[in-house]
Amino acid sequence: MTSTTRTRPSRTIRLTAISIAATGICVAGAGLAAATNPGSSFGQAVGSAAEAVGVDWSSMPDGYSQAQYEAFWDAGYTSADVVELAELWQIDDTDTKARAGQMILDGEQLPFAPGTHTLSGVPDEALPALEEFWAAGYTVEDVQALSDLWNTDPVETKTLAGQVLLDGETLPVEPSGTPTATTSN
User: Fold this and answer.
1) 10-residue block means of pLDDT along the chain (185 residues)?
2) Cβ(92)–Cβ(86) under 8 Å?
3) Taking Cα atoms as reference points, which of 75, 64, 70, 69 lies closest to residue 108?
4) How far is the C-alpha of 167 from the C-alpha of 185, rounded, in Å?
5) CA triplet 112, 115, 121: central angle to 5 degrees?
6) Fewest Cβ atoms closer than 10 Å to its Cβ: which of 4, 39, 41, 75?
7) Chain centroid offset of residue 138 CA
8) What are the distances in angstroms from CA 139 to CA 15, 90, 178?
9) What's the rounded Cα separation, in Å, for the pair 147 and 156?
10) In 3-state terms, what secondary structure has residue 99?
11) In the prediction, which pLDDT does 119 show?
């Protein structure tokens, strides 16, 4: 009878290989989670860690800085104001907020004062809920996710979600954006 002998990697080598694979999966998962919600505290922590090791990372869309975002919302502008500015300047919402935020940072006047516009077709009593929804950091993509979950149209979704937030409850979808200082939570 002939015996065959297989060489087996040592236990240390196998455990090392498993550890390396697990670490790679964890790093990839953390990156994916941070990319999904870059404005969250976890997303910002991953971004800070990435920048610390030399990886170029931004949680904001290209051409839109955190400083512009904060300047725009902290000045008291509303989502209805975004719509009006976008129409006036003929650019998308992100570019509108970036441009307006930069103008505020540069000390320039915008075409109108913060809070000048209201959302047409929305009852006045729904406005606080809508403002709370946007101030909590929710995005258009989040509206779509909630609309799909609740089987509601976007306006109804934002109003319902904002009221849930005003009532101190949490939504089944985390905000993808960065909350502003105006939220009541």
Assistant:
1) 60 72 61 49 61 61 82 84 88 88 95 81 76 85 89 86 92 86 50
2) yes
3) 75
4) 9
5) 110
6) 4
7) 7
8) 43, 20, 9
9) 8
10) helix
11) 66
pLDDT per residue over 4-51, tens digit each? 555 666 777 777 767 776 666 655 555 544 444 455 555 666 666 666
Q: Which two tokens stand for residue 16?
A: 């090392």
The structure's pTM equals 0.45
Cβ–Cβ < 8 Å for 176, 142: yes
Which structure tokens are listed for 103?
Answer: 């103008």
Give Cα separations from 159 to 43, 48, 183 (angstroms). 27, 34, 15
Q: Which two tokens stand for residue 138?
A: 């929710």
Rg (CA), the chain: 23
- Hey, what are 124's tokens? 């006045």
